[in-house]
Specification:
This protein is mainly β. The chain has strands spanning 3-7, 10-12, 18-25, 34-39, 46-53, 56-59, 67-72, 77-82, 91-97, 107-111. The termini are far apart.
């Protein structure tokens, strides 16, 4: 079955960096567009970034220029490098494959001074 395991979250000060990882299994990872979403309590889950291939990625306006999504098909892993973090980036981050209705447990990111 589809399994997604996010890791790498933590607590950082504004301006800091974190690198999230999402290890995938149970599906043919290479052909799927992979996405990162985030959610804060009381709000809908929101799109952060997606990657189809090494040359096709997309970002929410709020993270453009600060976050970088990448993938390693051999390791079946998608990454999210987050730099210049802001308090409003706080939330639980999830990865998801396009057209597969499966979510991992998420990883908490807290940006606070």
């Amino acid at each position: 079955q589809v399994q997604l395991v996010e890791s790498g979250g933590g607590s950082v000060q504004p301006g800091g960096s974190l690198r999230l990882s999402c290890a995938a299994s149970g599906f043919f990872f290479n052909i799927y567009t992979m996405n990162w979403y985030r959610q804060v309590p009381g709000k809908q889950r929101e799109f952060v970034a997606s990657i189809q291939s090494s040359t096709h990625s997309r970002y929410a306006d709020s993270v453009k220029g600060r976050f970088t999504i990448s993938r390693d098909n051999a390791k079946k892993t998608v990454y999210l490098q987050m730099d210049m973090l802001k308090p409003e980036d706080t939330g639980v981050y999830y990865c998801k494959a396009d057209n597969l209705n499966s979510w991992g447990q998420g990883t908490q990111v807290t940006v606070s001074s």
